[in-house]
Amino acid sequence: MLWRFQAVCLSVISLFFQFDLSLVLSSLTGEQNWAMCRSSSVIDLSGVETRCAQLQSVLNKPFVRITYDEALARLTDQFGPRDTTADLTKAEERHILDWFGAGVCPVFVSHFPSILKPFYCLMVNETRSAAVDLLVPQIGELVGGSVREVDPVVLSARLSSMHLSDLSSLDWYLKLRGHGGSPHGGFGLGFERLLQYLLGVYNIRDVIPFPRVLDKICL
Q1: How many CB atoms lie within 10 A of CB 198?
Q2: How far apart are CA 23 and CA 38, in angstroms?
Q3: What GO CC terms are in its UniProt record (predicted)?
Q4: Could you tell me where the DSSP H helices lie in the chain?
Q5: Distance (Å, rounded) from C-alpha 41 to C-alpha 25?
């Protein structure tokens, strides 16, 4: 089920390549369009074809798939013991991409500790959840998602074990699952991170349409 979910993530990302990316990016080189850009140093338009070829080569290869425990074992070997239930840091994500993806291939990391994930994530055993992150070079986490738990009894037990102060606010969710449901999953994709990766932009602030600047609102 989790591998099928990862395949869905891949298909969504591949949708962005149904268009000729080189035509989309090269349209920015038009004198009129380019004059509207505030900073001509943000994107190196001279390397559009090269960047498109790099991205296509990434899609032509299978993405690497590892578990959280496999990543943890490698991190422990290299840097010593760490918290076995802690989330991956940005630096650790980059090390994982270098080790398992040779710095160029995206990497799926699955079966995260259940303590790191919301109560509605499906458990694969007592300590691990059916959750996955997609890491891409230079960026880190691009997609995060999981398979959902559909059994209201299990959901209620998990909520009770989390010692939340007000469970009544989630009654609607438990009642919804009480009517039944098919196995399903969901994920979130960072759109600005996707643009940053596709365009080869170093700073994510350069691809945010409405940047948040101290004491200023850009609309």
Answers
A1: 19
A2: 21
A3: mitochondrion
A4: 2-14, 21-26, 31-35, 48-59, 68-79, 90-101, 152-161, 171-178, 191-199
A5: 15
Question: Whole-model pTM above 0.85?
Answer: no
Helix (H, G, I), strand (E, B) or coil at 62: coil
Give Cα separations from 169 to 164, 172, 193 (angstroms).
10, 7, 33
Q: List pLDDT tens digits, range 186-198.
A: 999 999 999 899 8
Query: What is the rounded distance in angstroms from the CA atom of residue 17 to the CA atom of residue 214?
Result: 36
The two structure tokens encoding residue 13: 């990302």
Could you give the CA distance from residue 87 to residue 68 in angstroms, rounded to a whole number? 9
Beta bridge partners of 152: none
Supply the DSSP symbol for 108.
E
Q: Are 173 and 155 in contact (CB under 8 A)?
A: yes
